[in-house]
Amino acid sequence: MDYAYVVAGLVGLFFGGEALVRGSVGIARSLSIPPLLIGLTIVGFGTSTPELLVSVDAAWRGVPDIALGNIIGSNIANILLIVGLTSLIWPIRVSGATLQRDTFVMTAATLVLVPVFLSGYLERFTGFVLVSALLTYLTWAYRNPGVNMPQTPETSSPASVPVSSMWVVAGLALVMLGARFLVDGSVSIARGLGVSEAFIGLTIVAVGTSLPELATSVIAAIRRQSEIAIGNVIGSNIFNVLGILGVTALITPVPVAHRFLVFDLPVMVALSLVLTGLLLTRAVVGRWIGAMFLAGYAGYIWAAQG
Predict the structure, then answer these.
(1) What b/e readout covers 204-241, taking b as 16+ CB neighbours within 10 angstroms?
(2) Exposed, middle or buried by CB within 10 Å (0-12, 13-18, 19+), for 177?
(3) Residue 97 burial by Cβ neighbours in a 10 Å radius (0-12, 13-18, 19+)
(4) How big is the CA angle at 212 (ends 195 and 49), to the nearest 5 degrees?
(5) What are 92-131's pLDDT values in tens digits?
(6) What secondary structure, in 3-state letters, does the chain show?
(7) What is the CB-side half-sphere exposure of residue 241 using CA atoms within 13 A?
(8) What is the reported pLDDT for 99?
(9) For residue 41, is pLDDT > 70?
(10) For 143-196, what is each residue's pLDDT tens digit?
(11) How many Å apart are CA 260 and CA 240, to the nearest integer?
C-alpha cells in the first residue's frame, strides 16, 4: 500500500504540475503579462510547486530530513539527471550573457546555504532573508532581461481566464494530494526498509518533485531547443533554494541533519560550480558530458545510501 501511495503521489505531482503551469500561463497570456515575466515567475513557481508543498508538508509533520532532502536532492537531480539526459538527447548550446548571469545567481544562492547549514537550524529570519533575496533577483532580472533570454516552449494553453482558472485549481488540488501521498508512502517505506528518511527525500521524493522540470526539459531537447532546458534547470534551482527553502523556514523552522552538511550540500555546491564552469568555458555541452553527468548521478545515489 505504501508503494501505491508513492506511485499515486508521483502521478498527482506530475499531472498537477502540468495543469498548474498550463492554466497559469493561460491566465497570464489572457491578461497580456509579458512573456519574460511569465517565464521568471509563473512557470518557475509552477514547476517548483511540487517541491514547495512536499517540503512544507514534511517539515510541518515532523520529518525535516525529507523536507531538506527534497530540496537538495532536486537540485542535484536537476544538474546531473536533467542536464545529463537533455544534453544526451541534444547538445546544449550556451548563448548569451543572461544564462551565465543566472548561473552565477544559482551558485551564489547555493553558497549562501553553507553558513546557514553550519548553524544547524533554519530559522524564520533565515527564511525571510532567502525569500527577500528571491524577490530582489526577480525584480532585477525583469528590469535587466539582457539578451538571448531563453523562452519556455509553446504549450497549448486554455484561451479563456475561467477555463485557465479551472486548470489552476485542478492542478493545485492534484499537487496537494500528490504531496500528501508521496510523503506518507515515502516515510512508511523508509521506516519499513530501515533506510533513512533523508535518503528517501534525496532520491524518490526529489526525483518525483522534479518531474515537471524533467518533462519540460526533455520536450525542449526533443524539439532541439536545449538552451530552454538549461534555463529551466537554472531557474528551478534558484527557486528551490531561495523560494522553497525560504518559504518552508518561514512557515516552520527546520533542523539541519549532520549528513546534509558533510555530504549532500558539498555535492550540490560542487555541481553548481562545475555547471557554472562549463557554461562559462564551453559553447556546447555535448553528449559525452551528458553521459558523465548521468553516470555521476548513479554514483551519487549509490554513495547517498551510506
Answers:
(1) bbbbbbbbbbbbbbbebbeeebbbbbbbbbbbbbbbbb
(2) middle
(3) exposed
(4) 80
(5) 776 655 567 788 899 999 999 999 999 999 999 999 999 9
(6) CHHHHHHHHHHHHHHHHHHHHHHHHHHHHHCCCCHHHHHHHHHHHHHHHHHHHHHHHHHHCCCHHHHHHHHHHHHHHHHHHHHHHHHHHCCEECCCHHHHHHHHHHHHHHHHHHHHHHCCEECHHHHHHHHHHHHHHHHHHHHCCCCCCCCCCCCCCCCCHHHHHHHHHHHHHHHHHHHHHHHHHHHHHHHHHCCCHHHHHHHHHHHHHCHHHHHHHHHHHHCCCHHHHHHHHHHHHHHHHHHHHHHHHHHCCEECCHHHHHHHHHHHHHHHHHHHHHHHHCCEECHHHHHHHHHHHHHHHHHHCC
(7) 27
(8) 67
(9) no
(10) 775 544 444 444 454 457 788 778 877 877 787 777 678 777 877 877 787 777
(11) 16
Residue with cell 496537494: 176
Identify the pLDDT of residue 196: 79
Q: Where do we find the cell 544564462?
A: 99
Cell of 56: 512544507
Residue listed under C-alpha cell 509533520: 61
Q: To which residue does cell 532536486 refer?
A: 74
